[in-house]
Structures are given as structure tokens and as C-alpha cells.
Amino acid sequence: MNFPVHIVSVCALIENDQGKILMVKNPVRGWEIPGGQVEVGETLIEALKREVKEESGIDVEIGNLMAVHSNIGMGVQYDGISSIPTIVSFGFAAKALSGELTTSEESIEVCWFERNEVLDIIGEQFIRDRVKCMLKYDGRTIYGVFSRNPYILHGIQYI
Question: Taking every annotated instance into account, which residue ranges of this chain make up the domain Nudix hydrolase (predicted)?
């Protein structure tokens, strides 16, 4: 029996004291909220704090779990050969604590945006839909299911 393999990832909708949202520009996907893969031995919270710091230079306090998204379609890496397993992503609220905006290999630009500007700068539909859910957070966690290439949103529900 082959056991399923999933990538676990985390992301955060991070606000500063002025209510602006932190966005990072990935060299491939464009603008998105900070986050990335959970490494072996890390908790979700540890991974998220590490990823945010690496991608943006900002230290954060993690808040509520806002959204869980499942990418149920297998994908192909940018090399056109290697496969990408399905992904389960946990999206949290966060507050900026300290640090200076810094770019990295994963973030060629880092900037604070007004809430009403965020969706307009996101190019990838799956990222836009995820962030849209998180911006509408009302205390209930959202569960979204999608696949990519082509992008299909299979459903959203509150859990």
C-alpha cells in the first residue's frame, strides 16, 4: 500500500499598527501573503514565524486560524518534469511586532498595502481567492478546495 504524500504549508494575513497588509512578491507567482512549507520537526506556528521572517524581515505574533485550503490536484514543478504532491495550507491572522522590510530569493519586493488594494495586485487566481477569504474573516474558519492548471475552485465552506 502506498501512503499519500501531502505538502503542508502555512501563510499569514499580517497587519501592522496602521491596518495595512504585508505582501511579498514571489519571482514566479507574483504578489502574495507571506508563507511557505512546514519543515520536518516544526510546528505550524514555528514554520510560519520562520517563513515570514525569511521572506519579509518582519517578526509576527500569530493569531487565529482563518482558513484551510486543499489543493487536491497533482502539479508539475517549474522544471516541467518533477511532480508536486497535493498541498494542505493553513492560513492565520498575524500582527507585525518588529523588524525592517527585507527582500530574499523568495521575495523580490516586500511592501505594506491598504486592505482595499491587496486583491488588485495579486495575479494568481488561487492566491487571490485564498486572500479574499481571509480578508472576509468573521471568526469562522473557512475551508476551500481547489486544483490548479487549470485553476478550479471546487468549493468553500465554513468549518
Answer: 4-136
What would the pLDDT profile of 107-149 be if each residue is shown by its tens digit?
999 999 999 999 999 999 999 999 999 999 999 999 999 998 7
Is residue 80 one of the residues assigned to a domain? yes
Its domain, for residue 109, covers 8-152
Domain harbouring 57, CATH code: 3.90.79.10
The three-state DSSP-derived secondary structure of the chain is CCCCCEEEEEEEEEECCCCCEEEEEECCCEEECCEEECCCCCCHHHHHHHHHHHHHCEEEEEEEEEEEEEECCCEECCCCCCEECEEEEEEEEEEEEEECCCCECCECEEEEECHHHHHHHCCCHHHHHHHHHHHCCCCCCEEEEEECCCCEEEEEEEC
Asked, for residue 45, whether it belongs to a domain, the answer is: yes
Q: Is residue 126 part of a domain?
A: yes
